[in-house]
Amino acid sequence: MADHPPPDIKRGHGTQRGGKSGKVADFRYKRPSRADGKQGDRRDAPRRDGAFASRAKPQQSQFPHRRQAYAALDLGTNNCRLLIARPSGENFTVIDAFSRVVRLGEGLAASGKLSDEAMERTLAALHVCAEKLKRRNVRLARSVATEACRRASNGEAFMQRVHRETGIMLDIISAQEEARLAVLGCHVLLEEGDGPAIIFDIGGGSTELVLVQPGEKVPRILDWLSVPWGVVSLTDTVTGSDESEQSRLDRYTGMRRTVGRSFAEFAERIREHAGSPEPIRLLGTSGTVTTLASLHLELPQYDRQAVDGLIVPSQAMRDISRRLSRMSAPDRQQLPCIGDDRANLVIAGCAILESILDIWPAEQLGVADRGIREGILRSLIAADAEGERSRAALQTMREQNV
Predict the structure, then answer these.
(1) Residue 391 burial (10 A CB sphere; 0-12, 13-18, 19+)
(2) Where do the DSSP E strands lie in 54-204?
């Protein structure tokens, strides 16, 4: 495979229109502090490429746009998420965020198209995003849609409707671009080491696995895979009864078998890397891994500061996955950090995670509560800064020639 997947040809950026205000999470990206967790550890992430806010003072006089806002919107199969940030030194500070479960891909596996109900839910969330983009005076934005819109026969038509009604221009990005952005957004949380690593993203409609090795600034991509199995698509495809423990286990086994078949060719390609004399490393970014990490820590409610950057034993994640697979949906709903929204979907996530551990048996798993949106933000800010440097250099040359 190529060192880097090819970028998408299409590009777009969000504009604005009105809507009601939604849930906001104002927080600052920073180096995760060390904390004592149940068999878990915190990794002080390297500061090489800017996922965290820096102490360095921004050079505002050189780059007049450094205090303006940038935005990244990720419309997935299950969630609609927005981050708005300002540059901070070489990095960024998040000033606004929004997340809502929209279940855009609900019923897609059976019908092949986005349902009217799912599109209405999603449009309501996107109106909120449009209002935030307008209120924050965003300088540059990129808005992307992933597997649900890639697969749906009416995906392009829905993108056009979104643009008409909200002003937001969504790109339906390829699986390659989705994988690249996920790596760019979270790779700073990889454990230090010289051995190969896999970074994975379990989404709602697909799962991406990227084999990387250390690079000068960002990891070098050696190989990658995208399969059409995420927590929504796998749940909708592999059905079964919830009436007894045996029926639940049978369904879980069916999910594992389905995902395992999709991973088989990739597993063969990476076999030599999995047998590396250097310790192999694994980093996951998804609601599945953050939810299981929360259960591992026995948190009463989700705490991003405790989870993002956590290193946990892989066997502990397997044990939790197997315990959940035996539980009924009502029992799972009672667990902290799962609730109604994830009670049914988490089982598919567990099956995908265990299948990843089958082909990449790392002893520890890194947990990232960041991914595509952070990758988009870093790309936007870096490209804009490079453009400013080029313009400043050109202006200097003109002045010297006067």
Answers:
(1) exposed
(2) 69-75, 79-88, 91-101, 138-145, 170-172, 197-202
Same domain, 329 and 381: no
pLDDT band at 25 (very low <50, low <70, confident <90, very high): very low
Query: DSSP secondary structure string, 86-121?
Result: EEETTEEEEEEEEEEE--TTTTHHHHSS--HHHHHH
Q: Is the pLDDT of residue 370 over 70?
A: yes
CATH of the domain at 341: 3.30.420.150
Range of the domain at 385: 41-176+374-391
Cα–Cα dist 389/38, whole Å: 47
For 334, counting Cβ atoms within 10 Å of its Cβ (0-12 exposed, 13-18 middle, 19+ buried), the class is exposed
With cut-offs at 50, 70 and 90, classify the pLDDT of residue 395. Answer: low
* Residue 387 region by backbone torsions, left for phi larger than 0, else alpha for psi between -120 and 50, else beta: alpha
Residue 223: CB partners within 8 Å, gap ≥ 6? 1, 210, 211, 266, 269, 270
Tell me: do 200 and 326 sit in the same domain: yes
Residue 388's pLDDT is: 63
Same domain, 287 and 220: yes
Residue 63's domain is classified under what CATH number? 3.30.420.40
Same domain for 344 and 198: yes
What distance in Å separates the CA atoms of residue 221 and residue 306, rounded to the nearest whole number?
29
pTM: 0.80
